[in-house]
Structure formats: structure tokens, C-alpha cells
Amino acid sequence: MTLILALDFGGTKLAAAVTQLGSREWLRYERRLSPIDGNATTDLAIMRSLIYSLLQDATPDAIGVSFGGPVDFTTGTVRLSHHVPGWENLPLKDLLEKEFAISAIVDNDANVAALGEHRFGAGEGYDSLFYITISTGVGGGWIINGQPWRGNAGMAGEIGHIVVNPAGPVCLCGKQGCVERLASGPYMAQDAKEYLFKPANQLQGQQLRSLVNDNLDLITGQIISQAATQGDELAIKILQSGAWALGVGIGNVANLINPQRFILGGSVTKAGEIWWNTVQKTARETALPEIDFEIVSAALGDDAPLWGAVALAESALISK
Ligand SMILES: [Zn+2]
């Protein structure tokens, strides 16, 4: 029996699973929240304990790893994590290969999730697709001609930092009006809070306010989606402006690369019909009429990076 170990280092959660080569089901699976004040050392310690509890006495034949941040794919070295300190230039592939004495392949989560959806999910049978995750950040991963396309030094797919409104608010990356600045959950929440804190806007966002019992600090992307579903005008406006930004990004990407499918995953995609309709309509209006594409929901949900890690590990076994 050929055993594959799949690991997912997310910004807020850690997951590990084992499966058999060729299987579509987990033999064992564990998921943990990453501690709020954690760092690379604590994340690695938690992951190590998950791994040993999953493996029991078995030895895996290959390890695939999804990492929530930029990774140098050729060396398997993490460049950094935007959420967890201490990951700067950490040789994750080397660490795992030394500890388990087998091949490990490490890539960033959007590339890995794209691979997972292509191999096991909404991208099965498609030759070209762009996977986009919209949650705490916005990232993307390519499959072109049936293969991952990572770009020079693994940096392809950064749809989150395509500028859609040069006069817009300042993004984490320093530019203005990026897709991520408008469409990610935390930024939508921040915009809602700032607006509602202004004395002149005290009578607005009633559903939003009541969902958090007037404690505006508790507003999240998910609360905005909920309020929008209840008809809150401010929540609808913010959600639509995020969806519009993403739609413009998708339409431009369609013009440039012309993939068959856009597959959308991540927590913000659970925002409901208003969000999805705006994304579809805006992307369609942005792209040339001759350019055909579909925008669909990811099929593997939160497990897309883990299944992509399985596909990575399989490729390590094949190339052996
Ligand atoms: Zn940016």
C-alpha cells in the first residue's frame, strides 16, 4: 500500500490527512486552529503532533504540502507568511525530508488548490483553469495545458493585487484599489466598520449593527454577507463592490489568458446570490464578447489544498 501524507499550513488553521495512492477518500484526517499568537515554531510543533497521531506506526511514501504564503517551488523554501511570523526563508521541504526520509513537495496554497480542483474537483477534465480563493486574502493558481503554471519563481496568479480602481483605498501591498483590498473578508469588514463609526452614519447599517449587538469590532466578512441577505443596504453595497472588483479582475484575466474555467473557493464565496450574480455579470461585461468562460464554485471546499497536496505527492512518486 502506497501511503500519501498531505499537509495544509493555512493562515488560521492547520490540517493533515493520509490517503492511499489512487484513492479519493481520506484514511485519516485532522484539522486544528492555529493559535492566535502562534509562530512558525508553534505551527510546526502542532503539525508534527497531527502527523504522528495520523500515521500511528505507518510510514508515508511521499509528502505533499500546501502553504498559505509565497513559496519558492524549486527549493521548497517558504518565503514568508502574511499571517504567521517566523516563516521567513524557512526550508520546509528540507525539514520534512530530513525528518521522514522521503520526498516532500511544497507549494503555495492557491497553486495547490488549483491542482486539487483540477485533479479531483470542479476542474476535472479541463485543460485550462484559474482557481481563485477569496477569504482573508485573494490569491490565484493556474492550470494551463493540464499542468500547473507557476510563473517565474512561483509568483504567477496574484489576481488579488491587480489594480481595479487606481483611486481606491490603500492595500496591504502599498498600491491602491487592488482586488484584495476591495474583495477580501477582512477588508470588507474594515470598510463597514469605518463607515458605521462616523457620527453622520449612525442611522445606517441597522441589520449589521444588530447582528453584532452594536459592537462594531465584531463585524466580519461573514457578518456582512448575513446582513446583506437580510437586506442591509450598506452590507449589500460593500459586498457588491467587492464582487465588482473581483469581476473586473476575472474579466481582464479572461481577456489575457482565455482559460475555460474560473473556479472560486474560500469563505467569501459563501456570501450568497447577490455576490455571485455581481461577480458573473461584471466579469462578463469586462471581457470581450468573443471570449467564452465559466465561473463556478470550487467542489472540494476547504479540502482543496489538501487534495492538491495529494496530487503534488503523487507527482513526486511518479518522477522517482
Ligand atoms: Zn494589493
TrEMBL record:
Keywords attached to this entry: Kinase, Transferase
GO molecular function, one term: kinase activity
Domain of life: Bacteria
Pfam families assigned to the protein according to its UniProt record, in alphabetical order: ROK
Family per similarity comment: Belongs to the ROK (NagC/XylR) family.
Protein name, per record: Glucokinase
